[in-house]
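Notes from the 1:1 (GR / supervisor)

We went over the backlog. Supervisor wanted to see one worked example end to end before approving the batch request, so GR pasted a single chain during the call. The sequence is below; no edits were made to it. Supervisor asked that the structure be written out right there so they could see what the output format looks like.
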Amino acid sequence: MKRFKLASFLDRYDAVLFDMDGVVTSEQMYWNSAALAVFEMYFGSHYYGSETLNAAVLSEHMGSIRRRIFCCDQTIRTVKNRGVNSNWDLAYVVLGAALYLEISGDFKAVLAYLADFEGDVFSLYNAVAENLSVKFQKTKDYYARLGPFWQEVKNCFQEWFLGDRLCQKSGFSQPVLCGKPGLLHSEEPLVDKEKLICLLRLLHSSNKHLSVGTGRPRLECESVLSAWGVSQYFAPGCLITYDSVTEAEQELASYGICAELTKPHPFMFIKGMFGNTISALDIFQGHYDAGLLRRALVVGDAGADLFAAKAAGFGFAAVLTGVQGQGARSFFEKEQADFILNDVLELMTETQ
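Structure output shown during the call:
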């Protein structure tokens, strides 16, 4: 039986904070869900199009739909490098651009628009809201990120990912287009499962503080870690999810502070370091020991992870298992990631 030990560079870190998708879990089913949601909402007569759609037929042609919507994944790579982290935001940005541009089904025009867009990720969200509000003569707030239009996109995405049955169990309304089986059930880990469990066990037994910072909802994050039998390796209160972000934004709003805390904001990883010992207001105002962050390593696959880590002073290890694969190496070299790994399992090495 092979034996492993932690990579020597981890000696300088007391904590390891993981993104999930593209690091330990595959994003394939999320990207498929995003593509199906954009397709349904753009073409379906029950949303913004004129076609009568069938969920079973769309599921059967999922691969070709994704290639069309995301231009063989070039669009995904483009928005990820701009800092778009959530797959709900991916669908929101692509659908918003398609509706604004009146593309007539040619999603290459969306790719070109997004590739040429000047400005950061928040400027992009603002442009989506501004363009659609002018085009459809509704308020900008209606089309803003987290507004009613965005919520509609999120709901359609969740229908595809969870399926009819789980959607209703999770508190979502009856799907607009029924007959969706749920892509969640086809989800696979990115790396060998037994080796991943070994890695997490090693980190835990070495007294490393372990945390997660993910755009997944809490239910989807916890269910995966529980199913793999690794929940106990993570520090209590340190699974920081999409729900954690929305709760924190609501907390800040109660103080009259309007802030977006999703990546590339470093909130998720800072919260993952301190858990329930600090509040969102503490983080927003910088009331924490920033020195501890320099002894922590963030492991991520996307620009949003790197930007979030650098903004707070964390170390950053890039893994080349995201949408760009090995093609992301030059990006992470340019952005001066501390470490570039082929995959998360390179956090450990085989003993002699």
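Supervisor's comment: Residues 7 and 346 are 7 Å apart (CA to CA).
Batch request approved.
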